[in-house]
Amino acid sequence: MHIDLHTHSTASDGTDTPAELVRNAAAAGLDVVALTDHDTVRGHAEAIAALPEGLTLVAGAELSCRIDGVGLHMLAYLFDPDEPELARERELVRDDRVPRAQTMVRKLQALGVPVEWEQVARIAGDGSVGRPHIATALVELGVVETVSDAFTPEWLANGGRAYAEKHELDPFDAIRLVKAAGGVTVFAHPLAVKRGEVVPEASIARFAAAGLDGIEVDHMDHDEPTTARLRGLAKELGLLATGSSDYHGSRKTVRLGEYTTDPEIYGEITRRATGAFPVPGAGGPRPA
Question: What DSSP string describes 57-114?
């Protein structure tokens, strides 16, 4: 089985619609794909309706969190999307995205970048606006060469010159809320230092003690020594070790299925979840 547990669609900051994403996942040879848009489940219905035969969808979200001034992302899988407390927190984060993005645009303008809010809003379309949309605007303007190049201290990285904070969950609250909604939590790209400051390993141990299920080990932003360290940490803390592409369509060079999760780990995630279940595809033929 080929399993990719971290992808994004136009419901947040990817470039594939949810329907395109599941069709592309099937074409890439995946058996299981998780749709984990930022702080929203808005793309799930479209993805399920278009799900090709032979591909299974894991419904999820990537929750924005912050602890001790450091931002982090918590992947949540197979939770009840209608659980009111978790739904309310997702809404608070989404509502803060527009003013936060507008603040970053103003900071960029103060730095001499000729970016306009209308440009960022056009790029975001109907998605939940975020830093990748602003980064795309910087690429369009020739300020940086790639979206990844915008995520540096010079521009949009955590604590960078144009960075602005938004409403974010405490990670311990995120773990509690997802668990109460019957879901499973995995700390996304925990040591992706190129994105900015990361939480110390002692915090990961505290998350594990609070009920964290796993950490994302195999990821494009982890080099080989980091991957090895995280795999050892997962074993030490009794956490599940996942692998995922963190696919954003054309905004990143990573391909669907470039990093994958072991089937046994996926099986354990599905066994732990009680809020929702993986959805087998029946919406159309699997691409050849």
Answer: EEEEEEEEEEETTEEEEEEEES--TT-HHHHHHHHHHHHTHHHHHHHHHHHHHHTT--
Q: What is the rounded CA–CA span in Å between residue 38 and residue 64?
A: 7
**What is the spatial distance between Cα 207 and Cα 173, in angstroms, rounded to a whole number?**
10
Burial class (CB in 10 A: 0-12, 13-18, 19+), 145: exposed
Contact 230, 255 (CB under 8 A): no
Coil/strand/helix, residue 269: helix
Residues 6 or more apart whose Cβ sits within 8 Å of residue 211: 175, 176, 179, 185
Residue type, 99: P
Residue 85: strand pairing partners: none
The answer to whether 63 and 172 are in contact (CB under 8 A) is no
Each residue's pLDDT expressed in tens, for the chain with a length of 288 residues:
999 999 999 999 999 999 999 999 999 999 999 999 999 999 999 999 999 999 999 999 999 999 998 999 999 999 999 999 999 999 998 889 899 999 999 999 999 999 999 999 999 998 889 999 999 999 999 999 999 899 999 999 888 999 998 889 999 999 999 999 999 999 999 999 888 789 999 999 999 999 999 999 999 999 999 999 999 999 999 999 999 999 999 988 899 999 999 999 999 999 999 999 999 997 555 555
The rounded distance, in Å, linking the Cα atoms of 118 and 122 is 6
Report yes or no: 14 and 251 within 8 Å, Cβ to Cβ.
yes
